[in-house]
């Protein structure tokens, strides 16, 4: 079940990505509406991160193309923000929390120009939004996993973009923080930003996302939450994993009591 | 380790430069070595990214291969002249005062290599000041640099070229071993004491200067190899710091660990 939209903010056409000859994403074809909180669901190794990396031009694409704001990636880089997986960097690097968040402003600054008061203010505001303002001068090697994740989110906010791509921003984050960050993301989408999140937990996905993409090497579904979260599609996405299937039917049952559905 | 690799990999460049210019001191030697340094970096990156070889393996393969080619070239072409592995590997800092830059008028301008070193210093300082934020960003998170549209590849290449140039211009004076020691030991020691980038850079410079001066005078005192003594001083300082840190891991110098428990 793939729902296409008129004048999409992100259009992925027939995208195929392979590592060492073996395809990890097959003919993904979807279009996404603006101003929505969008979740990418799928089992491990389904190509969720690869999809985001392909959109950001970080992995070579074997076939198909990606259009963002109906333009090429290079024309609109300053309008896109990216949160990589926390494990992708060395957290022993000698930098403070403020240094890392300020990096979000470097794209708009351009080469050679030094960040000044304005950039520092942006970084402080973003730290405030993720509740990390008291950690400004802390070295990043002294943060917990959840705090590192929040620093990365703050850095993405500091890019002041229109489209946000987040690769598992809730890995290692406790429930209270997760709720707070989801509320922040909902505020952002209410203000017209589009946020795409790779996510693991089907329960919270049901609660927060407006639009859900289900992926398992192929695109299984892409559409409004109420239309795509069905037992059939979840089974297709997560395959014959029995343990998971019982969990899935739990969720389907819960869905009937979902207060958001009203 | 890239510094180590480059300092060995430049040997064929030096030999080729030597044959083009016919002297050990020519500009061609430095250009040849510089080009080989950049080539070594490119090969290492290519092996790592495209051929999926592990970083340490690709460094090891690249620099041993290029170094071996250099030795073969020396033995084939230059066995009669004064250009041997020993002199390239160990250098001899004590000969510097003899190697003067004498103008055409016969006026001595002081040690020739000093001017190379000063030029190098100016270039490196300029490079760091100009590209401080880009260098920090690409060293920390290269993908993010790419995503926001910084030419991360070019910046990395420029950094490697600076390392290559620094290595080449200094090891004629002090030999490959001391160059590598001075590239690796001061920052590694400083990193034990501080996790803040600006203090790390300052402490590294201070340590480098201290190691050179202390090593020089201690070698003078016991009448021994200057380069060897400098490396020894650096090694002792590093081991001492590591030992101290392993006994008292929380002693502070530039870090900001609070004494109270962390908030969420």
UniProtKB/TrEMBL annotation, chain A:
Q: Which UniProt keywords apply?
A: ATP-binding, Nucleotide-binding, Transport
Classification via Pfam families: ABC_tran (PF00005)
Report domain ABC transporter positions. 10-242
Spell out the InterPro entries in the cross-references. AAA+_ATPase, ABC_transporter-like_ATP-bd, ABC_transporter-like_CS, Metal_Ion_Import_ABC, P-loop_NTPase
Coiled-coil ranges per the record?
none
Q: Which Gene3D superfamilies match?
A: P-loop containing nucleotide triphosphate hydrolases
Instruction: Tell me one GO molecular function of this protein.
Output: ATP hydrolysis activity
Q: Which family does it belong to?
A: Belongs to the ABC transporter superfamily.
PANTHER family, per this entry?
IRON TRANSPORT SYSTEM ATP-BINDING PROTEIN HI_0361-RELATED (PTHR42734:SF5), METAL TRANSPORT SYSTEM ATP-BINDING PROTEIN TM_0124-RELATED (PTHR42734)
Report what the protein is called. Answer: Manganese/zinc/iron transport system ATP-binding protein
Organism (species)? Algoriphagus ratkowskyi
Its ancestry begins with: Bacteria, Pseudomonadati, Bacteroidota, Cytophagia, Cytophagales
From TrEMBL, chain B:
Q: Does the entry feature the keyword Transmembrane helix, yes or no?
A: yes
Q: What UniProt keywords apply to this chain's record, in alphabetical order?
A: Cell membrane, Membrane, Transmembrane, Transmembrane helix, Transport
- PANTHER family membership: ABC-TRANSPORTER METAL-BINDING PROTEIN (PTHR30477), METAL TRANSPORT SYSTEM MEMBRANE PROTEIN CT_070-RELATED (PTHR30477:SF8)
Q: What InterPro entries does the annotation carry?
A: ABC_BtuC-like, ABC_TroCD
Q: Where in the cell is it found?
A: Cell membrane
Which family is annotated? Belongs to the ABC-3 integral membrane protein family.
Q: What is this protein called?
A: Manganese/zinc/iron transport system permease protein
Membrane topology per the entry is: Multi-pass membrane protein
Q: Which GO terms describe its biological process?
A: response to zinc ion; transmembrane transport
Alphabetized Pfam families for the sequence? ABC-3
Q: Which residues cross the membrane?
A: 29-47, 59-79, 113-132, 144-167, 173-193, 200-219, 225-244
- Asked if the record carries the keyword Transmembrane, the reply is yes
Which Gene Ontology cellular-component terms appear in the entry?
A: ATP-binding cassette (ABC) transporter complex
